[in-house]
Amino acid sequence: MTGSSPPLRVAMVGNGFMGAAHSQAWRVAPRFFDLPLEPRMSVLVGRDAGRAAGAAARWGWAESSDDWRSVLDRDDVDLVDIVTPGWSHAEIAIAALEAGKHVLCEKPLANSVEEARAMADAAARAASRGVFAMVGFTYRRVPAATLARDLIAAGRIGTVRQLSVSYLQDWLVDPLAPFTWRLDKEQAGSGALGDIGAHAIDLAQYVTGRQLVSVSGTLETLVTERPVLAESHGLSGTAGVGTATVTVDDRALFTGRFDDGVLGGFEASRFSTGRKNALRFEVSGSLGALSFDLENLNALQFYDGTADPATRGFSTILVTEPEHPYMEAWWPSGHLIGYEHGFSHQVRDLVDAIARGEQPRPSFDDGLQVQRALEAVELSSQNGSAWTALAETEEYA
Ligand code: SOE
Question: What contacts 361, CB < 8 A, 6 or more positions away?
């Protein structure tokens, strides 16, 4: 516990699935990590006052509000955590940074490159005053993924030659699954591409330390009309009367060229029957390879090509040792962690960076880079999968 540390008073805007995950992290992180500032769960903001009050009571926020702007006027709020759909990120984040609040914003950063650029510019202005912004690509903080990054940076697989990254889910396989905000371009920006493909892009860039420079892609919508939503539960909900038109992709397939010439293969789909939350990568190098699957998130597969040929093969590293990233704070070796721990690690890293007066990563510039990749894939798909440079997205915006 950090009882004597100065407070970091947090307001969270949004109260859906991500609101629950972030609330848990704000509560748990200071109990397992020694943080230089003590997070206080001050205000939860939701559009519906009754729901916001209920969520605040359940998750442990001191107060609730139905007006995010009023929170920005308060002196007793230091950080705004944005867990709303993409369409509202830019407006809230820019206003919060201008009001002198640090910002944590869910991914993808925005619904367009234009919005993401405005957010990155606001973040740069704020950083010059010691106010910081971070985007929530939380899977960087799964210890096995962080370890993969460390091993690649240490040269353990030699020169990276190829990689493939996929993020596979199946919650839209049923054509009667109702229309939710994630299927509406106005609200979500894009479909599988932005919702889960954004994670794949960020993770690929983070783990390999490289940046995408051009892409060639195809987007596909497999079910174009769905029943309207009666009531939402988790990602989906119950169907009401009437239908709505799906305006985003269900599946995105693309290849991407990195700045050092490496070619990567990417897939993001919500139609991968049987795959629930399978974010996978495999990176192959001149001396070895690494392979990861979020559905088995405590494990990292490592092929050491320098080992004795008689016994070498992919081996499983159980990433639960105190020597592994973040793991010293948790349980004895072999006692597994879960999906939610990445959010606590995100809080730890954010709070540490703010206390040190340093830019937390992934920054809004990192979020802008991913947004440019998303927009380049969309442009490419509209142009018969033509290779499209990320730079072209700035002209397009
Ligand atoms: C739904 O596809 C979803 O909740 C995404 O929105 C999250 O970003 C991802 O982490 C899990 O799946």
Answer: 134, 349, 353
